[in-house]
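=== RUN LOG ===
request id: a7f3
mode: sequence -> structure
chains: 1
length: 751
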Amino acid sequence: MRRTARIARSHAAQLMELLNSAPAVPVLIRPDGRLDAPDRLATWLGRDAPPAYLSEFLDTEGGLEPDNARALEAEITAAQRGSRSFALPVRVKGSDRMLLVRGAPTGTRLGKTGTIVIWIFDATESFAQIQDLRAQVGQYRQALDALSGVIEAAPMPVWHRTADQQLSLVNSAYVNAVDAASAQDVIEQGIELVEAVDGLSPRASAAKAAASQTATTRMLPVTIDGKRRLMKIVDVPLGPSGVAGYAIDMQEMEEVRAELRHLSQANRDMLDRLSAGVVQFGANHLLQFCNQPFLSIFGLTPETAGFETHFDRVLDAMRDAGLVPETPDFRAWRKERRDWFLSPTAHEEQWRLRDGVHLRVYAQPLPDGGLLVIFEDRTEHVQLASARDTLLRVRTATLDNLFEAIAVFASDGRLHLWNSRFTKIWSVPDVTLAAHPRVDELMSALADRLARPEQSGLVQQLIRAATVERRQRGGRIAFADGRFFEFAAIPLPDGNALFIMLDITDSRRIEQALRDRNEALEDADRVKTAFVSNMSYELRTPLTSIVGFAEMMDAGYAGELSPQSKEYLAAIMEATTRLTRLIDNVLELTQGAAGGLPLDRREVAVDSLVQQVVETLRAKAEARDVTIDVSLQGEPGTVSGDERRLRQALEHVVDNGVSFVSRGGRVLIHVEPLPESVRIVVSDDGPGMDSKTQARLFDVFARFGRHGDAANQGLGLPLVRQFVEAHGGTIDLLSEPGQGTSVTIDLPRGA
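=== RESULT ===
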């Protein structure tokens, strides 16, 4: 018995040590509420000693949170009455320690009926881990909900496949794209978004991505809402979870890309047609594009300026061609140009090359790190600018040396430009003009220079008419010192007005002198006309007497005359006859000049008139062996006029031709009827006349004879002109030395 007792005590000690080292504290609760608990429970509850009774363990000072204590009391009571086990987590009052209480009824060996044993575990760390896991689960749940919402709200079709490549999840965009009723129908029926292409179905493509564990991408056409659209299909392997997929609509992007390509090509085509050279480099300093003018300006070959050519190499080629500015340190100069790629702003330079070539260089850094350089040939512009400057200097010198005074007034009436002559005429200081005064202010200050100061307003009106009304006007103005000026205001294309003043003082004096002289000449001409007319009548009286006595002597009233006397008498009668004709011509010429030539108008047959003239001069023509031919073109008809005057005019012309052609010559009378007149052309093959002689023939006081033959001198052609013009006709003379003479007479039918 002692041995058995010793073994039992040893075994009990082992069990006690085992319980003390266990992770849980056993507490035995007897039906009467008494507790059997180890000291370790007091440590966990923050007490000095473990509670002896259940009431002490569950009261406010027992060490547990009141709510947990009440819940534990209810569980213990239920276990005692119902013989059931329980598990309840409780928190130590005023501490983060969490205890897990597991309770169950005991057997009869440990106590009476109603005794239960509870095991109290320190679950602080486990509970913290559980809380963390719960928080993570909550976060994952929220993230999953958010991801599900994003997938559902995504405008692109999104789907998920299980490990066997069956659809397990699709969003609304997928459902709408395949025209399905719901996502459930899509999954149950296995409706695919795309068709098999080149024998590769959507499931096979997903299996391929899952096998390679690499995302695959395909560009496939998809029919959505009856329209064929290009979409980018992406399958993303998710390991054991299957394969996720999504489709991106690339139709608009491809259209934009195509439009961009077309725009880029059009841009390059346009740049090729520019006169400026354009070259573009990428961020790697390699040439990407250059137009034809760039190659032409720098004389580069397509190989030298080919794509992928470095910026430095292009500058080297330009230097070899002598098309960069001369610089002592080309490397440093090239490095400065290379810095253009990193510059935040654009650069502009003027390159002056050999042979007078000027280039404007504009370098624009691009957002992608590249560089766009524009080379504009400004040689012609510089030359034109130089020529313009020279022209301005020439214009200034020309204006300052003009005899006229010139001033330009702007559209607002201010003096803009003037020459030195303007300053001299108005005697105004240059300082006053340099202030660019208005025309009203200027003319008000210069009104005292005029003979009539109120005329200063006339200049203002002219300037206003030229600038506002765009009308040109002029006038004359007199200065107080006796000078006279003619002026004009001319509108200019730019809206300004040009004011010109010309000194006409000398012209005015000469004009007055000429006017006085003309009046004197007119008076003298009237006296001369009266004198000639009077003398013609005075000479006719004695001449008539001489002719009468000569005829009486020729008739034998004074006796028989000797042959020599008859010759003398014939000479006297011929001279008196010619003198009579000359006096008649002078009288008629005088009457014609005075506008009083009498005309006896009647219908005159032109062909008959010509035949009468030919018959009158036939004897003279035969005596000189001259042929007179008449050419009638059709029926000339009649003209209205004085037959005697017309015959006299035509006879003068034909007689002149017969008299001055060489022996054996020819005179042609050509008659041509016209709709409103009759043209008579008298031409001969005589020696002709020079222009000076022709001019003298129409002088009223000139002789008709061309060779100074006294026997044939007269007032012929001037008288013919007066006869023809009195009938409303015209006469023209055409002659060249050695080419004969042609006289054309046009007689109107209704004159």
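=== NOTES ===
The chain has six domains: 12-122, 154-249, 256-382, 402-503, 506-598, 599-748.
The mean pLDDT is 81.
=== END ===
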